[in-house]
Design brief:
The chain is of the alpha/beta class. It has a domain of about 170 residues: Rossmann fold (3-Layer(aba) Sandwich), CATH 3.40.50. Helices cover about 50% and strands about 15% of the residues.
Length: about 425
């Protein structure tokens, strides 16, 4: 049996989706074993009950084990799926509430901006520990990681451990979901549309958007739809970026506002583009409510809904185990993939997964205006990774100083003080050399 370790399995809804996906692949039945790992024993117990229920109801014939310790969960793993959130909801709340005192607005705050920087400082050291554990326990395992900040986490693993870069792939829904949105918007079936998309996670752009059957470039049709709906589509940040830069970005409008300096600090722009400030806090509270409902249902002996999510991690495993070549987007090391970005950077490109493993597809040169936007993002990511690896508080300050939204909102002295306040507020979650300053 191939062993699949789910790290952060106490995120029960996520675990349930992965297990449901893999139980839905009849060709894999009887060939997999799940090892669930979480540092929260209560959440881990409920995750095991949920996973076992789904396996039993689907007659998949998979084993389900739970491990509070990392070592037995990692031992001999073929695939490791990561969904940890270091510090949980309290740390996320801190990431929002401290900057709010300085007048700095955020929407999602998990990938760029001061929230993304702080999450990177908390998460990268833990991921490096896990990479070292993989080298000891499962050196041939493949780490499929969902944890944000996506552009920083794999990069941090490559910079801080000896785990080979091809053993780490970041997986995210944003490219897939954007492709679906674009196909629906222009009224062409998704399977008929040819896409070519590349960049940094949450800041990729769609460079090819074409009807496979007719060869029609679908961008002119999209522009007509946008211009005909100025108070609908025209009031979305991602659509405004498309209008100004010529290619459609892959991230949602509220999140896209954090990657550029033109929106969040201006009241009229927040209103004009309907930007949902503090949106991630609301999502987190919804997740906590959903967790309580799952506990109640399991304690009452109720059957949980089994809904396949078609998660990218599940699709990678299916392609690799069956050998059926599949094009999937992944976040990988920039080894001759995108020109103009650092070779160590974590970039998002199409890959081919199948019997020969996972092969990232070279993209080449980006249009200069989109490369320029990616560079403003990669600066923040690189400085944050280096801050962790070098143990430098100065680099944390500098990452915040070059962050587009932060720099557009605050003075240099305010940024430095806010960073120091956040480091103090997070305490032991921040690496000790950075706390020492």
């Amino acid at each position: 049996m191939k062993k699949i370790t789910i790290i952060g399995a106490g995120s029960v809804e996520f675990t349930r989706g992965i297990v449901a996906d893999l139980c839905g692949y009849a060709e894999l039945h009887g060939s997999l074993a799940f090892a669930l790992h979480d540092i929260d024993p209560e959440r881990l117990g409920y995750a095991q009950r949920a996973a076992a229920q789904i396996v039993e109801r689907s007659n998949a014939g998979y084993r389900v084990e739970a491990h509070a310790e990392r070592a037995p969960a990692f031992e001999g793993a073929d695939y490791l799926i990561n969904e940890i959130q270091v510090g949980g909801y309290p740390a996320t709340l801190t990431d929002f509430e401290v900057p709010k005192k300085y007048g700095l607005r955020q929407t999602i705050g998990d990938t760029i901006g001061i929230g993304g920087i702080m999450r990177g400082l908390r998460t990268i050291p833990v991921m490096i520990e896990m990479a070292d554990e993989m080298l000891r326990r499962c050196p041939g395992g493949l780490l499929l990681t969902y944890t944000n900040p996506m552009a920083m986490v794999p990069w941090g693993v490559w910079a801080g451990s000896e785990l080979p870069a091809d053993r780490v792939i970041g997986v995210c829904h944003s490219v897939r979901d954007t492709h679906g949105f674009l196909a629906r918007t222009v009224g062409v079936p998704l399977e008929r549309v040819e896409f070519r998309t590349a960049g940094l996670n949450h800041q990729c752009f769609v460079y090819v958007f074409r009807d496979r059957e007719t060869g029609e470039d679908l961008y002119p049709r999209l522009r007509q739809i946008v211009e005909a709906d100025p108070e609908g589509l025209g009031r979305r940040v991602r659509v405004e970026l498309f209008r100004r830069f010529g290619y459609f970005p892959t991230e949602s409008s509220e999140h896209s506002a954090e990657y550029v300096p033109w929106f969040l600090h201006l009241d009229d722009q927040v209103a004009r583009y309907r930007i949902e400030v503090d949106e991630y806090l609301r999502r987190s509270e919804d997740n906590l409510a959903e967790w309580e409902e799952i506990k109640r249902a399991l304690d009452a002996g109720e059957a949980l809904p089994v809904e396949a999510n078609d998660e990218l991690a599940s699709q990678f495993i299916r392609a690799l185990e069956t050998g059926a070549e599949t094009e999937l987007y992944g976040n990988v090391r920039n080894v001759d993939l995108i020109d103009g970005l650092p070779p160590d950077a974590c970039v998002e490109v199409a890959t081919i997964a199948g019997s020969k493993g996972v092969a990232p597809m070279r993209f080449g040169a980006l249009p200069p205006q989109c490369l320029a936007l990616n560079r403003t993002f990669v600066n923040v990511a690189e400085l944050t990774v280096r801050a962790v690896v070098e143990g430098s508080r100065d680099l944390v300050h500098q990452a915040a100083l070059v962050d587009p939204n932060t720099a557009a909102t605050l003075r240099t002295t305010e940024i430095a003080q806010m960073v120091d306040d956040l480091i103090e507020a997070h305490g032991d979650l921040i690496p000790e050399p950075i706390r020492r300053g």
